[in-house]
C-alpha cells in the first residue's frame, strides 16, 4: 500500500506542476477573461486519460503501477476534470445513462453552488 501511495504521489506531483506551468503560460498569452489555460488543461487531460484508459484495456502496455502513476497520479494531478470525464465515460460505456445525467448535472450544479456558498460564507462581513 505504501508503494502505491508513493507512486500516486509522484505522478500527482508531476501532474500538478505541469498543470501550473501550462495553464499559467497559456493564460498569460490569452486576451479576455475566459480561462483558456484551465480550459486547455482540462481538455488535454481528458484526451490523455482516454488514451491511457484505452491502452490499459489492452492489458499489454499498462502494469498496475504504471496505471497508478499515469492515470491516478499524473492525470489526477494534472486535472481532476479528466477523472470526472473518465468516470462519465465509464458509466456511459456500461449503459448507466441515468447515472451519467445525475452525476454530471449534480457535480456541475452543486460544485458551482458550493463554491458560491464557500465564498459567501467567508465574505459575510464585507
How would you describe this protein?
This protein has five helices and no strands. With 126 residues, the chain is mainly α. It folds into two domains: 93 residues, no CATH class; 31 residues. The longest helix is centred in the N-terminal third of the chain and has 27 residues. The radius of gyration is 17 Å and the shape is globular. The model has no long low-confidence stretch (mean pLDDT 87).
Helix-strand blueprint:
Elements: H1 2-28, H2 36-58, H3 64-78, H4 80-93, H5 97-122
Helix pairs in contact: 1-2, 1-3, 2-3, 2-4, 3-4, 4-5
Largest sheet: none
Share of helix, binned: over 70%
If you compute it from the alpha carbons, what radius of gyration comes out, rounded to the nearest whole angstrom? 17 Å
Number of strands: 0
Portion of residues in beta strands equals: under 5%
- Quaternary status of these chains? single chain
Gross morphology is: globular
Helix and strand succession? HHHHH
Please give the count of helices: 5
Mean pLDDT across the residues is 87
Low-confidence stretches: none
Q: What structural category characterises the helix and strand content?
A: mainly alpha
Summarize the model shown.
This protein has 2 domains: 2-94, no CATH class; 96-126.
Amino acid at each position: 500500500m505504501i508503494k502505491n501511495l508513493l507512486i500516486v504521489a509522484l505522478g500527482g506531483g508531476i501532474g500538478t506542476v505541469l498543470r501550473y506551468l501550462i495553464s499559467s503560460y497559456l493564460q498569460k498569452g490569452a486576451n479576455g477573461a475566459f480561462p483558456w489555460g484551465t480550459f486547455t488543461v482540462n481538455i488535454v487531460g481528458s484526451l490523455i486519460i482516454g488514451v491511457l484508459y484505452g491502452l490499459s484495456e489492452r492489458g499489454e502496455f499498462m502494469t498496475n503501477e504504471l496505471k497508478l502513476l499515469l492515470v491516478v497520479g499524473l492525470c489526477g494531478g494534472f486535472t481532476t476534470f479528466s477523472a470526472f470525464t473518465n468516470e462519465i465515460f465509464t458509466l456511459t460505456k456500461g449503459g448507466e445513462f441515468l447515472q451519467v445525467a445525475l452525476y454530471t448535472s449534480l457535480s456541475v450544479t452543486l460544485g458551482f453552488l458550493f463554491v458560491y456558498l464557500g465564498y459567501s460564507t467567508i465574505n459575510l462581513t464585507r
